[in-house]
Amino acid sequence: MKSKHPKGLLFLFFTEMWERFGYYLIIGIFVLYMIDPASTGGLAFSDKYADDIFGTYIALTYLTPFLGGFLADRVLGYFKAIYLGGFLMALGYIGLGFHDITSFYISMGLIIVGNGFFKPSISTLVGNLYSTEEYKAYKDSGYNIFYMGINIGAFICNIIAAFMRNQYGWGAAFITAGIGMFLGLIIFTMGRKHLEQANVMKPKQEGDISLNRILASVFLPAILTGIIGWMIPGNIFKSDSTDAFIFACIPIIIFYVRLYLKASHEDKRPLGALLAIFAVGMLFWAVFKQNGTALTRWANYYTDRQVTGTTEKTLSSIYLVDKKDFQTKEVQKYDNQFKAEKDENGEPIKVQGKDVYFTNVSSEQKEALEKKPEAKVSLINTELFQSINPGWIILLTPLLVAFFAFLRKKGKEPSTPSKIVLGLFISALSCLFMVIAVYIGSNGAVKVSPLWLVGTYGVITIGELCLSPMGLSIVSKLSPPRFTALMMGGFFLSISIGNKLSGVLASMWYDYENKANFFIVNCGLLLFATVLGLFILKRLNAVMKEKGIN
């Protein structure tokens, strides 16, 4: 029996799995590395500065595909773009393994540029594999399979990262990401003969916007306004990098508004629908991408990660626990678990949640530990919590697909825009889990169960599955043919802005006396996005119907 999917999909699946292995390994440990003390190999950045750097980094990794995709379409071809992007990313990952601040920033730049070439090119190859009548009907399921590869890589990477960090240090963990990227390129090379038919550069069409025009009217103004934003005295948006990024986005946003205003009557409705989806999706990513900042901080400082007994022995044997002194300089430096750090004058500085002391251990355990100054506690590595989301995706995707298939048979399956709005609402509910966790932990007085993070990730994963996989699909379906590449770039731009906003929001963590209010604000943003989605839902469904798609 002939397969429903082309052979090349298998090679793209494993190529992307290993590429995402490296990308998400970095995401999982990036903030932890930046805030770790220099004495243990970290950069000793403040939490706020680390959040800002993280937000800028992930924002730029989704901004560069706008130009990288154009160059792949018109100049390089997808094979060359994948090799170039993969090689630059691998060098960047390995460069992070050298404990040097200059190497740190150069390596981030290599990853950002490399991702710009790699990400849009491999996604385009997947779609091109299904361009023939033989496979055309199975394109959506092909993308679902491809999406699973992404999340398998994201799931296993944090386990490997924890092992390498505990056994060999931060540098080894970063270098492992680079090895994963090179492995992905080797697999891609092995499958090239099955992918040749997909490496078809986009033919020039009437009405296409030239690459020179894009560079002159979008990227050059973006660079110039970004420089202006960086150099403005003071901080309009709390940091120089945020000012530069927001200013750089202004010419790009103006470009898309003008594209909509100048479009023909036939093109204006689908373009308007896509821009509306980009706007509400941006708010989703602003909250979702805090998994690498605020939720990592919650796992690191506010979650009871201590393991004992058989669990401790098992995890220790495979180097997945972090050994900490029960009585450390950190405990002496901080008045209490979540109280205050003293400055040089002995005045308290309000920095919550930074020591490893457990106020909620039993009195017997505390007494036993205090009798042994050399005693250590075993803590589950913080980065392991980054595997919860991809783990949920792997578990829930078949269930959600089956659920919607059941509704389809009954004639009650929601439209794609309806699924997106549903995903926004469900994601808002995940924030309420964290509000409850804050109150359970008395706003940091007691470390709470890891199950609160497991539950939070579980709920927001359902929202993600309703929203994220639909994004590229709806762009490819609604975009006028000559604007497809531009609208794909707009989709990535909305994610980029959302990612940067996630860093801005996370950097406000210490501005909230009651941490529940931090998560309530996030919930409010998603509910606002839900209301916006409901407001435009009728029009979105009408445009989909005009196009003859669901």
Automatic annotation (TrEMBL):
One Gene Ontology MF term: peptide transmembrane transporter activity
Domain of life of the source: Bacteria
Location relative to the cell: Cell membrane; Membrane
Gene Ontology process terms (BP): oligopeptide transport
UniProt keyword annotation of Cytoplasm present: no
Membrane topology: Multi-pass membrane protein
UniProt keywords, alphabetically: Cell membrane, Membrane, Peptide transport, Protein transport, Transmembrane, Transmembrane helix, Transport
Pfam families given in the database record: PTR2
InterPro entries in alphabetical order: Dipep/tripep_permease (IPR005279), MFS_trans_sf (IPR036259), MFS_Transporters (IPR050171), POT_fam (IPR000109), PTR2_symporter_CS (IPR018456)
Membrane-spanning segments: 21-41, 53-72, 81-98, 104-130, 142-164, 170-190, 211-232, 244-261, 270-288, 391-408, 420-440, 452-474, 486-510, 516-537
Gene3D superfamilies: MFS general substrate transporter like domains (1.20.1250.20)
Cellular component aspect of the GO annotation: plasma membrane
PANTHER family, A to Z: PROTON-DEPENDENT OLIGOPEPTIDE FAMILY TRANSPORT PROTEIN, RESISTANCE PROTEIN MDTM, PUTATIVE-RELATED-RELATED
Family designation: Belongs to the major facilitator superfamily. Proton-dependent oligopeptide transporter (POT/PTR) (TC 2.A.17) family.
Protein name as it appears in the record: MFS transporter
